Amino acid sequence: MKALVTIVSAAALLLLATGSASHGRPAADAPCAGQIHANPGFERGTTDWTAGPRIVVLGDAARPAHAGRAYATFAGLDVSRSDLLRTTVTVPAGCDLTVRFWVRTTTTETTRGDYVNVGLAVTGIPPKTRFSLAFDGGAQWRQYSMSSGIATTERAATVSFLASETAGNGVTTFDVDDVTFTLG
């Protein structure tokens, strides 16, 4: 009988040590892993985004998206105007948020008057413009990245794209695609 108790105890310890059982619950996903935005590539239009009235989501074969079919564009009109595109995600406690995005610029501008400012505002940290991109960004897709840092409490993180155009100095179009929000 003592041998049977020893064998059962050893089997229980092995099960606890390996963490596996044939009929146990599946392991929970790690809270600081994965992509957390439902529409990073604008494939569903501006769902989960707040978009200004002049922001258009395009799927244009002549001007293809970085990936997928769609992208957001701040369409150049050669008028003095500003447009805002933004979204907010929740960052769990103990996690770092990395935001990566792709931008393409098409312009007839010859001076630095039109731009898109990219900002990251995180609960408890003053809002900050991370990138100010102008006409010299290039007609090819370019990737940029920014991070929130780790905190001990849950936070809200808002990413914003604010485009500004000035009339009379040429037309500039800023395209934005694949804005990924990855926890780490």
Please give a structural write-up.
This protein is mainly beta. Helices cover 9% and strands 44% of the residues. It is built from one helix and eleven strands, in the order αβββββββββββ. It has one helix at 2-18; strands at 34-35, 50-51, 55-58, 71-74, 81-91, 97-107, 115-122, 125-134, 142-147, 155-165, 172-183. The strands form two sheets. Strands 1, 3, 4, 6, 9 and 11 form a six-stranded antiparallel sheet that branches. Strands 2-5-10-7-8 form a five-stranded antiparallel sheet, with no helix packed on it. A hairpin with a 2-residue loop joins strand 7 (115-122) and strand 8.
Which secondary structure elements does this structure contain, and how are they paired or packed?
Blueprint: H1 2-18, E1 34-35, E2 50-51, E3 55-58, E4 71-74, E5 81-91, E6 97-107, E7 115-122, E8 125-134, E9 142-147, E10 155-165, E11 172-183
Antiparallel strand pairs: 1-11, 2-5, 3-4, 4-11, 5-10, 6-9, 6-11, 7-8, 7-10
